Amino acid sequence: MIRSGSHYLDALDDGREIWLDGERVKGVSSHPAFRGTAASIAGLYDLAHGSDHSSVLTSDGVHRAYTVPRTHADLVARRQAYKVWAEASYGFLGRTPDYMASGAAGFAALPQLFTTDTFDGSDNVLAFHRRLAENDLYCAFTITNPRPRPGGDDPVVRVVAERDGGIVVRGAKTIGSGAVFADEVLVGTIEPLAPDDVEHALCFSLPVDTPGLKLISRTSYEGRARGVFDNPLSSRFDENDAMLVCDDVFVPWERVLTYRNVAATAGMWWRTPAYLNFVHQAATRFWTKLEFLTGVAILLTRDNGTHELPAVTQSVGRLLGMVAQAKAFVLAAEASYEEVDGGCGGVAPGTEISFAQRIMAGELYPRAIQEIKGLAGGAIIQLPASGEDLRHPELGPLMEPYLNSPESTAEERVKLLKLAWDALGSEFASRHEQYERFYHGAPHVYLMMQHGAGGAADCERLARACLDGYDLTGPGRAPGVGTAGGAGGGRRR
Ligand SMILES: Cc1cc2nc3c(=O)[nH]c(=O)nc-3n(C[C@H](O)[C@H](O)[C@H](O)COP(=O)(O)OP(=O)(O)OC[C@H]3O[C@@H](n4cnc5c(N)ncnc54)[C@H](O)[C@@H]3O)c2cc1C
């Protein structure tokens, strides 16, 4: 079933326990802190449900992100689907439903990983994938742990009782992006666990309205937005990040994916293609976001009347180079696809390039923002608090002559500059910079992983081939010999 937007919105208003500013939220779809974003997510479902994009977004009655790719062409088709949804939020909704959908397809490609000597979650993981796909559900995930305080209670989600039919869990996970808008939330751990830390080696997925499951929302930028004209992004694409607390939550066995098994709890991300699928979706969104931001930069330079200056053209050229880099990582990960171990016939985007995308994107995004801020200048600050001021009988005519530009009317210019501020300088924009730097994980972890992802031996071999080609007695062989494998001829003595 492909859901419509209204079907999605109706399901949101269940008994879920969401807290914002000390108050329990009643009705996410109509609450001023969430309704604009909920409507944007509903818009995504409508794109898949019945629009010209349906055939790109869906295949055999499910969203393409749920299918297990088997060929390079399947990867390309998935990326085309990711791109349609990414463009619908200009890349600002990071955790659209296709994100976890792609992860679920990754788990389903290797269900045998979930069969362990402590628990057999293989049927449950296939049922999880089927349930999400067939009902077109939105699943968020919380896999980052709070820090324990020495001598204090364990703050991390763990099992406090086993009962007939399931387990009772208590504790927290730090950030669940999009969780307040989701149908289900997957609770697990991606951080490395000590080999004997079976207490925290646990993964399950529950409906967001499960009794005892609480989501404590951060400040809502949407709630602070004045409206679409003044805050065009934060009023509509604030996916929110909430802390998840499990206050003695009952989890039926059929909802448990891993239990008391460190290898499976980590391996579900790293040995199945789930994480590589995540990066494929995220890298497509990142590329789209850079396209959008570069477009904003070009419009700013036109409006500022600077677009023909050589230095400005170079700066825009630098941004376009960044867009091309972001695109190249997506295409290269697809082209370097790998077969999934385990004989299921599935493929996944290449590990080396996918892992490198995390480094590139986290480092590139702040540079891109700085570059665009440099092009924007002070204009993004010199704005009336509200666009409505332009309609004020006294203020409007007073400001108008000072807000015009050679390219646009006062209203057009204020509209563009407010969009730019929301994307580059607002609290929402600052959250996005932190998101692009950290949502993939902590740099000290993924930089170490890159080291293990391959490539080091080839680099070392090439440098070694150069060194081996000469010594104090003179050049031993022509440059280039021995670079393909380092097995060049003997050195002359
Ligand atoms: C906007 C946003 C949205 C997010 N959404 C989600 C979500 O939906 N679900 C989810 O599960 N998680 C989410 N995260 C969490 C994200 O996965 C983590 O922030 C990330 O894994 C880093 O973990 P941490 O924040 O605990 O950082 P820490 O581990 O506290 O690290 C902080 C800094 O210190 C460095 N550091 C720490 N230890 C070392 C060391 N030993 N050596 C060298 N450097 C070190 C790190 O590299 C990092 O730069 C989100 C994060 C952000 C910012």
TrEMBL record:
GO molecular function terms listed in the Swiss-Prot or TrEMBL record: monooxygenase activity; oxidoreductase activity, acting on the CH-CH group of donors
Residues covered by the HpaB/PvcC/4-BUDH C-terminal domain: 267-467
Organism domain of life: Bacteria
UniProt KW keywords: FAD, Flavoprotein, Monooxygenase, Oxidoreductase
Gene3D superfamilies in UniProt: 4-hydroxybutyryl-coa dehydratase, domain 1, Butyryl-CoA Dehydrogenase, subunit A, domain 2, Butyryl-CoA Dehydrogenase, subunit A, domain 3
One matching Pfam family: HpaB_N
Name of the protein this chain belongs to: 4-hydroxyphenylacetate 3-monooxygenase
Boundaries of every HpaB/PvcC/4-BUDH N-terminal domain copy: 5-257
